[in-house]
Design goal:
The chain is α/β, with parallel strands linked by helices. Helix 6 packs across helix 8. The protein is globular. The termini are far apart. The relative contact order is 0.10.
């Protein structure tokens, strides 16, 4: 069965070109030209992957991302952005995007990112370790992607849950960035270690008592991270 991709892009020329490219690779493509339409098509079509432009009318890509992630932490979402500033990329990842591609991008790069994201999603669908995590006043339920620290409740993304689970399986070990990327994003992930660092920063905001002075997930300079739960 063909994988279904929701393409959210307001520029007609870009949207048409990407539709032709993806369909030539045997994907089924459903499209939206603004943020409101993106939500409608998403609810109706239940795509396997979403390509989401940030700068769209009606609702921005960030708004669409937030709405989808409220109830769907799993469907891979790749942000398409003309913005190159690091803060915009960090914001997308903090809101739950799996990856981002900066315009202008090569067609081979786009296809490689799409294939990698779908491959990771296939692996994630087999991931069923749902034992509740309890660490002091922290409690995380992997099956619902919900957590609570003290009296504060929060939502987690699939990547955040998998990072936390892998850390717990490897307490006090120094884990280099590439090991973490291979384990959580999948072998041969085409992204960068910056993606990992940004997800770690977001996870710390949720599970650490003082994210600016983390005790659970500690940075090992130039190498990676150590979990001291």
């Amino acid at each position: 069965m063909k994988k279904k991709i929701l393409l959210c892009e307001d520029e007609l020329a870009i949207r048409t070109g990407l539709e032709d490219l993806l369909e030539s690779e045997n994907y089924k493509v459903v499209s939206a030209s603004d943020g409101q339409m993106a939500m409608e098509v998403y609810r109706k079509e239940e795509p396997d992957l979403i390509l989401l432009d940030i700068m769209m009318p009606e609702l921005s890509g960030y708004d669409v991302l937030k709405k989808i992630r409220r109830n769907d932490p799993v469907t891979p979402i790749l942000m398409l952005t003309a913005k190159s500033e690091e803060i915009d990329k960090i914001l997308g990842l903090e809101l739950g995007a799996d990856d981002y591609i900066t315009k202008p991008f090569g067609l081979k790069e786009l296809l490689a990112r799409v294939k990698a994201a779908l491959r990771r999603a296939s692996l994630d669908s087999q991931f069923k370790e749902n034992e509740i995590i309890r660490l002091g006043d922290l409690e995380v339920n992997p099956s619902t992607f919900e957590g609570k620290k003290g009296k504060v409740s929060f939502k987690l993304t699939l990547r955040e849950v998998r990072l936390l689970q892998f850390f717990i399986k490897n307490p006090n070990k120094v884990l280099d960035r590439f090991t973490l990327l291979d384990e959580v994003w999948g072998i041969n992930y085409e992204g960068t270690t910056r993606t990992l660092d940004q997800h770690i920063a977001k996870l710390r905001q949720k599970i650490e008592s003082n994210p600016s002075d983390p005790r659970l997930i500690q940075t090992v300079h130039t190498v990676g991270y150590r979990f001291c739960g």
